Amino acid sequence: MDEGERALAKVGRQRKAMAARIRMPVWFRVVFALAWSGFLAAPALMLEHERLGLGDFPYLPVSFLGLAVAVMGFRHMSALGQSSLVPDYPSLRRLGPQTAALFLGGAAFAWVPAVAGLPYVAIVIALVVGGLASAQACRLNAAIRHDVANGFPVPEGH
Question: What are the TM regions of this chain, as residue ranges (predicted)?
């Protein structure tokens, strides 16, 4: 094996090692699902808290804060970097449309019943969409891990 082949083999090992660090533990999947579900259910809780037997609480701001923390955690665990909003991973281009449809469509499906005075429907939809969003976040994470293992550069800061 000449020096060039050894250098390429070393780069390949480094890629595999970096890809192994890009993962989402099970506990984070649960946190992400709960954070997104809470954010989607917040309007129903806020508008119908008396009917649901809940106290007056700033559901929307608190759920937004929890979601922001979860998204920052996802960005860190998925090597999305701090230098740009969204690096140009090939997997993000491929999975982007379905991810956007899930997150935006899920919000619409959960918030319409909340505004229409159907809090139980909105909460059930929020829980289902939260689980689906967590599964999609895992798919994104796995796709990014694949990109890194196969040669896509990791952004600065990771």
Answer: 26-45, 57-74
Q: Which of 24, 60, 46 is nearest to 142 (CA)?
A: 24
The whole domain housing 116 covers 3-149
154 within domain boundaries: no
Tell me the three state secondary structure of residue 48.
helix
In a domain, 31, yes or no: yes
Task: Give the position of tokens 């954070």.
Answer: 35
Distance CA 112, CA 136 (A): 22
Identify which of 2, 18, 58, 66 has the alpha carbon closest to the alpha carbon of residue 38.
66
pLDDT tens readout for residues 136-154: 999 988 988 888 888 765 5
pLDDT tens digits along 39-80: 999 999 988 888 888 888 888 888 889 888 888 888 777 776
Separation between Cα atoms, residue 44 and residue 48, nearest integer Å: 6
3-class DSSP assignment, residue 133: helix
Question: What is the residue-wise DSSP string for 7-43?
Answer: HHHHHHHHHHHHHHH----HHHHHHHHHHHHHHHHHH
